[in-house]
Amino acid sequence: MAKTKNIEAYCGFCNAVKKMELAGETSEGDSSKRWAKCKSCKQKTVIDLNDLQKQAKLTLQNIVIDGCKEYSPREHYAVGETIFHKTFNDHGIILGKETSSNGKGMIIVEFQNSGKKKLLETINNQQL
User: Domain extents for the chain?
Assistant: First the structure.
């Protein structure tokens, strides 16, 4: 039985960096492009292995504390952006985005001291 190769890549369906299983070559003939299946949502997407090697993995070591945005549930955030959470007194990097079961936006943040947390995003005044 062939051994499967797993990689970490951005899943457009999950809006986060997820583990993916390489599922085969594309019909385009380019050996650097492969089909990859997300282990979370099970959706398949084409991954360019050359681009994957160029992208720096989001880590806490990449945090630039001077450029951190203070967290507020009323703000919009992007994957890879760094934030400061006043209550936790901690800096973190946004790893992904998702929608909660009640339809509210969530960001997944890895903090230096507090670990991985899910926080609300883009809540208007009426919902608070």
Answer: 6-54, 60-121
Smallest CA-to-CA distance from 94 within 76, 82, 103 is with: 82
User: Which residues, listed in sequence order, are joined to residue 22 by a DSSP beta bridge?
Assistant: 36
What Å distances lie between residue 108 and 33, 53, 95, CA to CA? 28, 23, 6
pLDDT tens across 47-79, in order? Answer: 877 766 545 455 666 677 777 899 999 999 988
CATH 3.30.70 corresponds to the domain 6-54: no
Q: Which residues contact 17 (CB under 8 A, 6 or more apart)?
A: 8, 9, 10, 11, 57, 58, 79, 95, 96
